[in-house]
Specification:
Chain lengths: 531, 283
């Protein structure tokens, strides 16, 4: 009898142990709407690529929940008095996934490659009178020498695009193969395999132990394996979440929001993001040189309807091109933004000479119809719907809009060639100054300034907001730049997204993750766990 | 052609119940397309942001779509695009494929060989894939979609017409026309072409639903009609992500496509039965 009881207890214990082992070995599964183009931090411009690669590679600094740069691979840093020298002291014992220790040599090689390749690098590099020399006096000290002071340098250094990879590994890899055939960094997960169109698999890096202080878990990550499934189809993604096959995802199909909230097996979190959507007029079109046409369009747009129709109401109307979740946001844009007022819109059109109306209700001037082409992305439901809502709203004031919706690559090609009248685009960046520069500075005409508009005042203000040493001047310049951008009506802000995360009930760590305003991937990697 | 309208042919057609059902469907779709302005309860483009994704009700018998547009009105207006695309495709195929078939059958030799190899080449590429590539390259839209589908399907007409011409040109009345000194062009258009029209009409009615289905597929894949055109394939695509909780958005346009395709197929089968004596017994 006793033997039987002992045997039963032993079997029970074995079961518990096996069960626990099985649980820790179960991979954490997440889902993405878009497949990354490649995972090279120095070359990619895509948001999903940046999220995925941020699990693997890290920059010298990170941003804490109060938008302050804090050490990540660096232990500390100090500026010289003239702000032309920045010294980084690196953490010792930080290992790459190859087992090799990260040193100043790797930082130098990575920054040189970043300056050489990154399409987004428009501030720190030698081309912009930024870092002109990188000194490495010892393995744990890096000295950046600047040609001119760069007051926002720390924010740029905290950007994952400036991540550090091993110098020796980079030397053996052709540029175009980094992030395609492999990726090596110091992050909490190491790249394992990428099955195109299906999934990216990562394994926990057991030696990781250097997370910044604001993250409760210094490392390693809780889950041994991380599976990032690529599921572009919204209905499929929704079905997979509802079926419990996805542990957590930030790419929640908004149309299924109510279903997800009502599901007792799921937990749903929401927070504003720094991702903004806007309508833009192509200033290379002569029509838009008449400001009254732009004002007519701005007053014809009902942002609340755009939010309801395109985002199922799970977003917020946006009043400036910089959103509330972005550094440097000026709340005053809410006061100066053009309100929905179709009567005013019609009045502007009539003042501009578009008085006649044909039998289809389209305004005419000198026998020409007021007909515009709007480009946007066909493969994302929200943008397609936003385009339809804008089309309907402009039709009400007599502007006929023909939609030309195509997949992302084709739309961007057309945008860069300035082959459109209107466009609806999305952009994402938590750092206000470079973000507004990216969208509106004349140096970016032909790449990301889809207004195709050179305004010297905006250029000067943006240069000041990025480079002035006086903090007050820098902030004020940025405020005025935001105001002028809104008043120009070249860019018409539409909506700011909400981050919705759906997770299984057995996923923990979400409260901590949402204590950070934009739930950075490094936190996702370290704080989320399965109970 | 006369055999179509003979009282015997009409009697045989009307005795085929499925053909009559098909004719009813086709007529209903045709009338809907003609009278959409009158019978649609709402403007198909009017959005109601307080009635997004409303289920079917007395106010909106087919419910509303994701932008609050009345789905019944959109489906009714969509019939215009379905018929326009179907007819556009078939006419283009018939003109292009028909002329090539006539020439191939009548000229023979190298010309025939060249045309038929061209048909083989087009047939060796999956139709939908070719149409998708063409529509994608040309930028989408109704016109582009019609051209893209027509380009992939003209070979059927060429083969049909060529076969007809090859058999007709050997008949006595054609030989007699030659003997009387008629020119080749006159023989082709006066004596041969009219006698090929029977099978062509049958084939046309069968090709219509195929064209409508292809256009729906292209619109579903995003290279067809651009929003806000209520083309049925585009309406189904609009609802594909909503099927688990807003089934009506895709279901009703899907039913409309099904009814239209069935109607044309039944009519086509009925006409074939009338024309082909091998089917006479079954009727």
């Amino acid at each position: 009898m006793k033997k039987g009881i002992v045997l039963l207890v032993l079997m029970g214990l074995l079961g518990v142990v096996l069960g626990a082992t099985a649980q820790t070995q179960r991979p954490m599964v997440t889902a993405f709407q878009e497949e990354p183009d490649f995972l090279d931090p120095h070359r990619t411009t895509r948001f999903h690529s940046l999220v995925v690669l941020s699990y693997v590679v890290e920059p010298l600094l990170d941003m804490d929940p109060s938008f302050q740069p804090v050490p990540l691979l660096a232990r500390s840093f100090e500026w010289s008095e003239d702000k032309l020298t920045l010294v980084f002291h690196l953490k010792q014992g930080v290992l790459f996934h190859t087992g090799q220790e990260m040193t100043s040599r790797d930082v130098k090689a990575s920054y040189e490659r970043y300056f050489r390749l990154s399409p987004l690098e428009n501030y720190l590099g030698p081309k912009y009178n930024g870092i002109t020399e990188i000194q490495t006096p010892d393995p744990y000290t890096v000295i950046f020498k600047f040609a001119t002071p760069k007051p926002l340098a720390l924010y740029h250094i905290a950007d994952a695009h400036a991540s550090i990879m091993p110098a020796d590994w980079l030397a053996t890899m052709p540029d175009e193969e980094v992030g395609v055939k492999g990726l090596v960094g110091t992050g909490p997960y190491r790249f394992d395999r990428w099955i195109r169109g299906d999934r990216i698999v990562m394994k926990r890096f057991a030696a990781y132990n250097h997370a910044p202080d604001y993250i409760s878990n210094p490392g390693p990550a809780h889950a041994e394996e991380l599976v990032m499934r690529i599921i572009p189809e919204a209905a499929t993604r929704l079905a997979e979440i509802l079926a419990g096959n996805i542990d957590y995802t930030f790419d929640v199909p908004l149309m299924g929001y109510q279903q997800l909230v009502a599901n007792p097996n799921l937990q749903v979190y929401m927070a504003p993001t720094y991702s903004v959507q806007y309508l833009v007029c192509n200033m290379k079109r002569e029509l838009f040189n008449d400001r009254r046409i732009r004002l007519a369009i701005a007053h014809a747009i009902n942002k609340e309807e755009v939010v309801k129709g395109a985002w199922f109401g799970i977003a917020f109307p946006l009043y400036g091109l910089v959103g509330p979740g972005t550094t440097g946001y000026w709340k005053g844009v809410e006061e100066i933004a053009y309100a929905y007022d179709p009567e005013k819109s019609v009045a502007y059109l009539e003042q501009a000479g578009w008085t006649a109306v044909d039998r289809d209700g389209v305004r005419m001037k000198d026998g020409k119809r007021l007909e515009l082409t709007l480009i946007s992305f066909s493969n994302v439901d929200q943008w397609r719907r936003a385009a339809e809502v804008v089309q309907a709203q402009l039709a009400k004031v007599g502007i006929k809009v023909n939609l030309a919706l195509a997949e992302v690559g084709a739309t961007y090609d057309r945008a860069r060639a300035a082959d459109y009248d209107l466009g609806i685009f999305r952009n994402t960046w938590w750092m206000g100054e470079p973000y507004l520069t990216f969208l509106t500075h004349s140096v970016n005409i032909g790449s990301s300034n889809f207004g195709q508009w050179k305004n010297e005042t905006i250029d000067t203000l943006l240069d000041l907001s990025s480079n002035a040493l006086d903090d007050v001047l820098r902030r004020d310049a940025f405020v005025v730049a935001q105001a002028i951008v809104v008043e120009s009506a070249v860019w018409i802000p539409l909506a700011v997204n909400v981050n919705v995360v759906a997770a299984r009930r057995d996923v923990g760590g979400l409260d901590e993750l949402f204590s950070h305003p934009w739930q950075p991937p490094l936190m996702r990697a370290l704080v989320l766990y399965k109970r | 052609m006369k055999q179509f309208f003979s009282s015997r042919a009409v009697r045989r057609f009307t005795r085929n119940r499925l053909a009559l059902v098909g004719l009813f469907f086709v007529a209903a779709v045709g009338l809907t397309a003609l009278l959409a302005d009158v019978i649609a309860p709402y403007n198909p483009l009017a959005m109601d942001f307080d009635a997004l994704l409303s289920p079917p009700s007395a106010t909106h018998p087919m419910g509303t779509d994701v932008l609050g547009r009345d789905l019944l009105s959109r489906v009714l207006y969509g019939s215009r695009y379905a018929l326009l695309i179907g007819m556009g495709v078939v006419v283009l195929q018939m003109v292009l494929g028909g002329i090539l078939g006539l020439v191939a059958g009548f000229a023979g030799g190298v010309v025939d060989g060249l045309i038929m190899r061209a048909v083989d080449i087009v047939w060796s590429i999956p139709g939908l894939v070719l149409a998708l590539a063409l529509a994608g390259a040309l930028g989408g839209g109704i016109g582009v979609m019609i051209i893209a589908i027509a380009v992939t399907g003209w070979g059927q007409f060429t083969r049909l017409l060529r076969g007809q011409v090859l058999s007709l040109r050997e008949l006595d009345y054609v030989t007699a026309a030659y003997a009387l000194g008629a020119s080749r062009t006159r023989i082709l258009f006066r004596h041969v072409l009219p006698n090929t029209l029977g099978p062509v009409v049958v084939y046309t009615t069968l090709e219509m639903p195929a064209a409508i289905l292809s256009s729906a597929a292209l619109s579903f894949l995003g290279v067809g009609a651009q929003p806000p055109i209520p083309e049925w394939g585009a309406l189904i695509a609009d609802g594909r992500g909503l099927i688990s909780f807003a089934w009506w958005v895709s279901t009703f346009p899907g039913l409309a496509i099904m009814i239209t395709a069935l109607g044309f197929n039944f009519v086509g089968d009925g006409l074939r039965d009338v024309l082909d004596p091998r089917f006479e017994r079954r009727i």
